[in-house]
Amino acid sequence: MVAISYRRVMLKLGGEALAGPDGTGVDPEMVERIASRIKEIKEHEVEIAIVLGAGNIWRGQRGLAFGMERATADHMGMLGTVINSLALADALERIGVPTRVQTAIEMRAVAEPYIRLRAIRHLEKGRVLVLGAGTGNPYFTTDTAAALRAMEVDADLLIKATKVDGVYAEDPLVNPAVKRFDHLTYIEALNLGVRVLDSTAISLCMDNDLPIVVLDLWQPGTLLKAILGQPVGTIISH
Fold this sequence. Notes:
Layout: E1 8-13, H1 28-42, E2 47-52, H2 60-65, H3 70-94, E3 99-103, E4 112-113, H4 116-124, E5 128-132, H5 142-152, E6 157-162, E7 167-168, E8 180-181, E9 183-185, H6 186-192, H7 199-207, E10 212-216, H8 222-228, E11 234-237
Parallel strand pairs: 1-2, 1-6, 2-5, 3-4, 3-5, 6-10, 9-11
Antiparallel strand pairs: 7-8, 10-11
Helix pairs in contact: 1-3, 5-7, 6-7
């Protein structure tokens, strides 16, 4: 077995990763593809915690545009992340990967409440841990939830898996010749205002010296390269 550089990782996935061609809903085929990629790195005995977004189900900004209360819109998004978490956990279990779902908002009929020490114990026992409902608080994104939970479970790396292969100076779809950064410091990322990860999450990682890797989930082998410490995507660190 190859030597890995990071024993425990936090994986942040946007809800769109689970969506169908129109970018909405939960597509079982896409969920199975994600589960297979997670299984690939799980076979290297890495401990994996996952935080999911809910952009495929609900975007709070749309509600706000119609006058909805921010707290209400955010709570709806949290519930959307639980739907995504259950879908991914089911796909992982069906391919033989033991998984537990914990939620920041208690709903004991479908998932465990988030308890830090229990979460760590699941990881130590080799289970994939899927964390739903963000932080349980409005006004905090799932990016920030991923950074916070990464600190709490003592993760070695935060992986932000997206549809782009790193951080660019500007939108690569608008300017295909734009530069991709191989490495950024936390301060450089904050000054650039990178859109793939919010500033609160970056600041939290900076304060606790947690490296971040931004990579393309769909390129074969990218997750494995990240846990092996090989160059992939963009790394944000000191």
